[in-house]
Design brief:
The structure is a single chain. Helices cover 68% and strands 0% of the residues. It is mainly α. Helix 1 packs antiparallel against helix 2 and helix 2 packs across helix 3. The longest helix is centred in the C-terminal third of the chain and has 30 residues. The two termini are 35 Å apart.
C-alpha cells in the first residue's frame, strides 16, 4: 500500500498552481468591482422591461438592490462554509458545486 506524503515535494520557486490562484482572484475582483461601478447606473438609466421598453428604477430603489447585491456577495460565502462544514463535507461540496457551476 502506498504511503501518504507527510510534506510537500521540495522545489525551487513557486508551486505550479499559484498562477491559477492569482488569475482567479484577479478575475473575481475585476468582476465584482466592475459590477459595483455600473450596477446603479444601469438600473437608473438603461434597464428595460420584457418588451424592450425603457423601464428604469428610481435612485433609492436601485441603491437598495445594490446594497442587497453587495450584502449577498459577502454573506453567501458564510452560507457556503456552513453547508460545507456542517452538512456535506469539503470534498462533496467541491464536487457538487463544480457540477452545478
Amino acid at each position: 500500500m502506498p504511503k501518504y506524503r507527510e510534506a510537500p515535494e521540495a522545489r525551487a520557486g513557486m508551486p505550479g498552481g499559484i498562477p491559477y490562484i492569482i488569475a482567479n482572484e484577479a478575475s473575481e475582483r475585476f468582476s465584482f468591482y466592475g459590477m459595483r461601478a455600473i450596477l446603479v447606473v444601469f438600473m437608473t438609466q438603461y434597464l428595460v422591461n420584457d418588451s424592450g421598453v425603457l423601464d428604469t428604477m428610481g435612485e433609492d430603489e436601485a441603491k437598495g438592490w445594490f446594497h442587497l447585491f453587495v450584502s449577498a456577495v459577502y454573506l453567501t460565502p458564510l452560507l457556503g462554509a456552513l453547508v460545507s462544514d456542517g452538512l456535506l463535507g469539503k470534498f462533496r461540496t467541491i464536487i457538487f458545486l463544480s457540477l452545478v457551476y
